[in-house]
Amino acid sequence: MKRISELMICGITLLLCHTVMGQQEQVPKTAFTKMYLPVWLAARSHCLEVAQAMPEEMYGYQPTGESKTFGEQIVHIGYTIELLTRRYVQGQEVKPNTPDASKMSKKEIIALLEQGFDYTENVVRTIEQETLDETCKMYHSGNTVSRAFALFYVQDHLTNHRAKANLYLRMNGIEPPAYTW
Questions:
Q1: Cα torsion 157, 163, 169, 174: sign
Q2: Alpha-carbon 14 to chain mean position
């Protein structure tokens, strides 16, 4: 009986690994997303390096009373990557419900960040051209843009907050990860 349970666990594990690996290897369906995916993956890598660079005990660092803490910046990035992708790229109705960074560990915050990047990466790999050609109205500016263009907004938003997080590192004498392109 124990041997059957072990075999079932091994089989389920192999199936899950195959599913995840297959999803990561899925080639995007459009010329735009094939071009965009390497840009997204580079942004992901750099943002995760920034999040890793700050020691956990400094995730509560806040340069001014009006500023987000470092942890809040990273949570904001991770949470809004998925939210903005759902809202503007996929056209879903979403309501913000940002997690409380002060109640999260560095590990949990980075997991949230990875989850956001994973979500949008999956969309980039699977979205159809017809959806990318649709338009949406941007909430803050009122501009009407294509859903493909909205991916640039998702990235610009995360870059804005990643740059703030980079500055927080410098303000604490920590050399930020080198930016490469």
A1: positive
A2: 26
CB 60 within 8 A of CB 71: yes
Give CA–CA dist 23/109, Å, rounded: 23
Residue of higher predicted confidence among 151 and 140: 151
Mean pLDDT of the chain: 90
**Model pTM above 0.90:** no
- For residue 3, CA distances in Å to 54, 155, 157 come to 45, 48, 51
φ, ψ of residue 35 to 5 degrees: the values are -75, -40
Helices 70-84 + 147-171 axis angle, to 10:
170
Is there a contact between 170 and 176 (Cβ–Cβ < 8 Å)? yes
Helices 106-126 + 147-171 axis angle, to 10: 160
